[in-house]
Amino acid sequence: MNNKTTIPFGPQHPVLPEPLHLKLVMEDEKVVEAIPALGYVHRGLEKLAEVKDFTQNTYLVERICGICSVMHAQAYVQGIETLMNIEIPKRAKYLRVIWGELHRIHSHLLWLGLLADAFGFESLFMQCWRDREKVMDIMEETAGARIVISVNAVGGTRRDLNNEQMAKIVTVVDQIHADMKVMEGAFLNDYTVKHRLCGIGTLTAAEAYQFGAVGPMARASGVAQDLRTMGYAAYADLDFQMVVEKDGDSWARTAVRFKEVYECIRLIKAAIAKIPSGDFAVPVKGNPSGEVISRVEQPRGEVLYYIKGNGTKNLDRLRVRTPTFANIPTLLKMIPGSQLADVPVLLLTIDPCISCTER
Amino acid sequence: MIDNITEITKAELLSEAQKMASQKYRFVTSTCVDLGEDNLDVIYHFDKDTQLKNLRIKAKRGAEIPSISSVYLCAVLIENEMKELFGLNVTGIAIDYGGHFLLTPDELKNPQSKISIVKKGEN
């Protein structure tokens, strides 16, 4: 007798801020098969990029995703600068690190809050988002917007930071560091949290590699893979330390993201301490021609931009592979065999950004 | 300007993918580029220790290309996407969404392909 039941999980589900559908084949409470389905909000931005000019595309790619908008623009402008042989000022490289790492902090705090909410710790959720607001306020003060801050431009940055702003950033990230220390016990050592996360959705290092996992997903499984080690922007000068865990379960993924916030704070303070004076942009002449691949480490992992220019202001092709697109296949391994009650937490631990995926 | 790119044929794709897997390369993604007049470039990107290696094949729209999902299961999503958005006929995908991964039945076919405008009386 076939006692399998197929149930839809999403596209509308309390744990999902964005629409993703999973077709779950169940045997009682156990999931035996999970097939992801996308396409609910696909926007065709890669096609739109072919009719916008290459400078307008900087603002278009920021709108692929709000949470990592700075790093989308960074990957794009780095690619265009390579195609056009533009050497940007050193100050701009440091500014890109500062705003980029601030974005990583607010992305990780957003995710940590959502996870806390998913396992029922509403006060912890509010504490995470309270600290995230402090980063949002910095964004507004330094760039005039909270999320899509449009600071990157081909040739450098559109804005600079003055000494008062940088001093304030240091004060605020120190406050966040102190608050994180208070939350650390709950996220990493609490009995109930460990019960919900430890041993759930384990992905070994070999499986992470085989399923193409990137970012904290891969690093939580012991795969030491972070593009910041390549030293793009100013990372080569800042002694970047990668956070890697070995267990490969939901707790390890939480630990990687939690500890990465400390590393972001250290990087921001190091960049502010070392930032050179001078220009923050150079003039840009001409149009991009040729093919290039540009990669950046976003909060969710590696983003890849393939750019093909034809010597005119329009591009022949702009292709974006976002980290969530790479991490979705890991669900095919993690969810089968788990209990239905664990599916929301498992899905959350890939930190799904459907806006990125449905670019 | 792309470093480490090798042009291969469709027939060599699976064996090259297997070589990559045996050398512990991670599959990053594939990129399909419409060159116009139904010519497509498909670039497969692999990574090992942050170094990229790329394989390029040239194909006509609608021509059969073997899926590499038997070697790298994680290629299923991008192969389904290329199939729908560019009309690349990828065969043997481990999870084949049958043309409805992103598109619904009443949407345009191959919406990412180049659009050419033909003046009245020229066609």
Task: Give a quick rundown of the structure.
The complex is a heterodimer of chains A (359) and B (123). Chain A is α+β, with helices and mostly antiparallel strands.
Structural class category of chain B: alpha/beta
- What is the chains' assembly state? heterodimer
Shape of chain B: globular
- Main beta sheet of chain B: 4 strands, mixed
The averaged pLDDT of chain A comes out at 91
Beta content of chain A comes to 5-15%
**Number of separate domains of chain A:** 1
- Strand content range of chain B: 25-35%
CATH classification, class level of chain A: Mainly Alpha
CA(first)-CA(last) distance of chain A:
43 Å
Helix content of chain B: 10-25%
For the termini of chain B, the CA-CA separation is 37 Å
Which consecutive residue ranges of chain A, at least 5 long each, have pLDDT under 50? Answer: none
Average pLDDT number of chain B:
88
- Note the total helix count of chain A: 14
- What is the CATH topology descriptor of chain B? Beta Polymerase, domain 2
Low-confidence stretches of chain B: none
Number of DSSP strands of chain A?
8
Strands of the biggest beta sheet of chain B: in what spatial order? Answer: 1-4-3-2
What would your notes on this structure say?
- The complex is a heterodimer of chains A (359) and B (123).
- Chain A is α+β, with helices and mostly antiparallel strands.
- Helices cover 46% and strands 14% of the residues of chain A.
- Chain A has one domain: Cytochrome-c3 Hydrogenase, chain B.
- In chain A, the strands form 3 sheets. Chain A has a 3-stranded antiparallel beta sheet, with no helix packed on it. A 3-stranded antiparallel beta sheet of chain A has the order 6-7-8. In chain A, strands 4-5 form a two-stranded antiparallel sheet.
- The relative contact order of chain A is 0.20.
- The mean pLDDT of chain A is 91.
- With 123 residues, chain B is of the alpha/beta class.
- In chain B, 17% of the residues lie in helices and 33% in strands.
- The longest helix of chain B is centred in the middle third of the chain and has 11 residues, at 76-86.
- Classes of the chains: A alpha+beta (359), B alpha/beta (123).
- Chain A binds chain B through residues 35, 37-39, 42, 44, 46-47, 82-83, 209-212, 225, 227, 229-230, 290-293, 295, 302, 304, 306, 308, 316-317, 319, 321, 325-326, 328-329, 332, and chain B through 1-2, 24, 26-29, 31-34, 43, 45, 50, 52, 54, 72-74, 76-78, 95, 97, 100-104, 111-112.
